[in-house]
Predict the structure.
Amino acid sequence: MLSPVEHFPLLVVVLSLFSAFSIFLAGWVNRRSCVFISIGTLIVQFSMAIAILHRVLTKGPIRYRLGGWVPPWGIEYVMDAFNGYILVVLLFLATVCAIYSKRNIEHELPEKRASFHTIYQLLITGLCGITVTGDIFNMYVFIEITSLSAYALIASRGKIALKASFTYLVLGSIGACFFLLGIGFLYAVTGSLNMEDLSLLLPPFYGSRAVRAALVFFLVGLSIKMALFPLHTWLPDAHAFAPSEVSAMLSGIIIEVSTYAFLRVAFSVFTVDFFKGLPVFEIVSWVSAGAILFGSIWAMAQTNLKRMLAYSSVANMGYIMLAVGLATTATRPPWGGLTPAAMHILNHALMKGCLFLIAGAYIYKGNLWEIRDLQGWGRRMPYTSAAFVIAALSMIGVPPSVGFVSKLYIILASLETKQFVFVGVLLLSSLLNLIYFWRVIELLYMKVHEGEHGHVVAVPREEVPWSMLLPILILSSLCILVGLLWLTKIPIPILDEVNAMFRLTGGR
Amino acid sequence: MGAGPSSLPMWALLGPALGSVLILLSSKRPNLREFWTLGASLFQFSIVASMVPVLLRGEEVVSRLFTMFPGIDFEFRVDAFGLLFALTASFLWILVSIYSIGYMRALKEHGQTRFYFCFALAILGAVGVALSGNLVTMYVFYEILTVSTYPLVAHEQSAEALFAGRKYLAYLLTAGCFLLAAIAMTYWISGTTDFQRGGIFKTGMASSLLLVTLFVLFVLGFMKAAYMPFHSWLPSAMVAPTPVSALLHAVAVVKAGVFGVVRTVHYIYGVDLMGQLGLGGFLALFAGFTMIVASLFAIAQDNLKRRLAYSTISQLSYIVFGVALLGPMGITGAMLHIPFHGFMKITLFLCAGSILVATGKKNVSELGGIGRTMPVTMLAFMVGAFGMCGLPPACGFVSKWYLGLGTLEAGNLLFLAILLISSLLDVVYFFPILYVAFFERSSGEESTPGGRKRVKEAPLTMVIPLGLTALGSILFCFPNPLTEMVLKLVRMAVGG
């Protein structure tokens, strides 16, 4: 007899699937109810995710067999410390964005409220599915669900967003095809689709070209999905023209879940032994270093706030993948293994989620898309702008924010592997971050119009409604609080468990 | 040396932390807001002062909060040297708070809440730097200090102020990156970043090339010390309101940089290793260059605050210079110069500010006859100027005496010559100001002959603080319990 918590992995997925359809039906009757169903579902899911994480940390992994079919024939959902952690991060940001979307969507897409929230729930279904599943083909299915709902959400504003969505659609489909090809190759070699089963069947074939080619397909396919430079081209437009809560989800969660998928495939299916002697992670880390610099430099060239943030996301994916690239060679706790990468997934979700929601708040209030339009808005929207300053400082890496902690951990990891170049890249990138974020801060607070010197005219406050402000403030304060939390090393045991599971730091 | 756990350092930082929040909350009620500033500064000073007896007993105040990495705790460890800096910063904050109330209100400045808020945060950073027990903890506060000072530098929001602000951040945050790299490498080499007298690097830990490179990184990281050729952010930052220039750009910010250099030389590398690597002479020459060239630059400045800024650049290098001599006398002189220069330079800046408030004049050439209209201010200015030149009865004499002894101890007459030339140059740029103020007539005076000019001082809230700092500068030149205490702390820090 399974305890209730052991049903949660399935329930998390199914709940939002049902919620999607109930929102659709409820939308016929009462459009106002949609968002409340959505938020309610997410809060329940978030509590479940916490319960799962707690259970996983105290009693070990959960294995859930769908329909009672025994793996490798049936589909199996496996929860361990890694996806437990990712699930919590994912559902937290999703909840926050859903709360934000109430007023924002009423404002931006008043006619499409029901369909927006329906598709939003489908997106959550896909994301949760990718995270919980222990079956590689099932993972592909959920990746497609996620991507399709993301295409629809990005396109929801119409006009130029349609083009952005179409670009993403084309590239995303190519990525998905690569992923599918990878699965095909593995299936051809082993005849299995269950991840754990694969990891047991694969070792004799480690030298096989088919298996190596499969890895390359996975890597390239998911690199498109996670917008790793130079495969990032779909990202800036998609982030810029989507509704802001969708941008926040795209940048903070969707691309990170693709990273999760890659890590899951790399370490649960191929395992760390496979990579011995293969320069995969070395290549990944150098490419990521390129991504960091490229993203930061292009962010400086942007005039549109959301596009700037989008390029910053390209750079931040570089941070995460650089940390991934160092994961197999840096082994000393606490910065060894996947710790810095997993840490930055949360940190980036907080920072960039916050920044995109703020960009959305400026659009909501004054239709301010361009950076230069923001002049003087620091006084008009004091809370939102203060949150922007905190999140931006965090991106720059001022202590004790989350950005600082990530930077420090990745620097220590690169020092351990004697990759001094990466230290330079990271520090240079934080200076570039300084340049493009400070330009905005200066406009918000410091720059005054001609002839306004000294006597600042009293400007009316024009804050966004509470339901939008609250998510922003929560995220920005977490940028500092979580940073302190990481420094005290309270959450590190979760990640140590991940490293031990993947045999990256040699056990606890 | 005994060390008891204590929460005092945390309380000392809580003062400005809580103060800044309360200031922000009472933005609509100026009197209450200024009350919080004063309250926070008094609170902080009393906490810092209460640590003095513990230190004098030969103990250290330690408070360890949590472990960040194996070998790195988030830790405050107050030793004599750190306490000296904390005492200076927190005491002068009280006086400058009183002064800034007068200054900001007299000039009807905008954005006063932002001003007081950032000011409190900056002090939080500076005192945090002073009390930190290792490099990582110090780095956290060092960066808070950098960022919180930006709105103060760009306060005026004119194009010039914005440019100065950008320059400020560009220099200091770049330096922060160098510092972070240096700290990470230190940890990588030695497995710790704790400050230990005599240094944490042992022979054989790393090649000397690496250690020299690392030292260069450290020096670049402590760019707040405003050594040449990376000094130009400091004169630009003089567009800030005068209380900012006074406390932050004569005491808190720049001294945090110098403080870091001293910590690096004495507590990370250690005198012996510095000597072996030949870094002492290199650093002394570097500092000597700045001492002389900055003085030459100062002569050419007509804007009073800019002249003072170049004087600060020169004087900061005295401290670095003293440390680089690597002998006990030189270090004593350097450590003494931190509070002493603080008192004297703050006096000079406060005088510059009160001249601005009372007459609206910013340039040295306009100051004719001001000695008669503002006698108290200009007397205080004279005390400060004497101190800068190393003349008694101001305390600059004492620290410079020790620095001179330090050069003899190092047996290097070239260094002594640098010190003396630089002191002479100080006279060259300070005495003309005094001459103009006391012996020249103002341009307006000829048109109204006969009538004695009336005394027209700045508001009392400004005159009293600058009088007190001037008195302080004199006090430290003579034996009394306070001077004894400072000397004892310095001796303990030097460890003789």
